[in-house]
Amino acid sequence: MSSNIIGSLIWIIFIFLSLFTHMIIKSLTGEVDFIITLFARFVYSLPILFILAYLARKTLLFQLNSWKNIALRSFFGFVTMIMVFSSLQLIPIGLTTALAQSSAIYVTLLSPIVLGEKIGLVRWSAVIFGLIGVCLMINPISIINETSELSTLGIYLAFGSALTHAALALILRRIGKTEHPASTALIHNLLTSLVITFTIIFFGTKFYGKTGDYGIEILITPNNILYTLIALGMMGSFVQYLMAQSYKYAEATILVTLRYLAIPLATLFGFIIWNEIPAYNQVVGGLVVIGSCLLITYREIKKK
Hints:
By secondary structure, the protein is an all-alpha fold. The protein is 76% helix and 0% strand.
């Protein structure tokens, strides 16, 4: 079996695990406070990430070349996750996934400014068509006229997550050349866990996001919800590990193409579990976004 096939299989498992974490978060809406879900995602992922980092680097697991870049990575990663998780509570999972996956468009837009890359006519055309696709999915006219059946805040959060994810992708490009992925994943989750813990201590769990039947007491109450929260954190650690492992085997251009499988899969799960039926404009817009992102990927392959 070729290394590209192995990497692609790992990536597909990564996609499914990512979707499962999103489905768990969506299903916990109304059950637990949003901040508790966020806490579980980061804190319960630490034991496995620590083990993986120690196996990979031994006593060097906390050694970094640039703490500034890791701090930026943690900031944009945390903000992106907050936006994605929040939007999952408000709008269909398929729409959240499609808008989040449009980040490749904004990476291309920001590349000349941040990385000094030149963008040709084809990629500029792909960006324009991609933005049109995003507009079709969001349907800004219905938002302005207040006729949209979807949560305006949820749409803004999903759209914002694509922008912050684009910034995160550019930072990851930079630190990927100098930092070990096991260490960056561990330190990112550790820093974020500390931030969430201190936030809960000072502000509680009900100041942001949808509240649920359970607050902080669920963390010491053995029941199915607590076990689900623990599974969420453990699954999140494997998501990060599998993503890093897939890049060891397969070419990045192949994996970037496969990532768009998440959009139809999320839409399918949304229909089966929550009876979420995408509107015509969301389907057309999603297809335009996928097409434009694949064109951007193709031009990057050709350029290299």
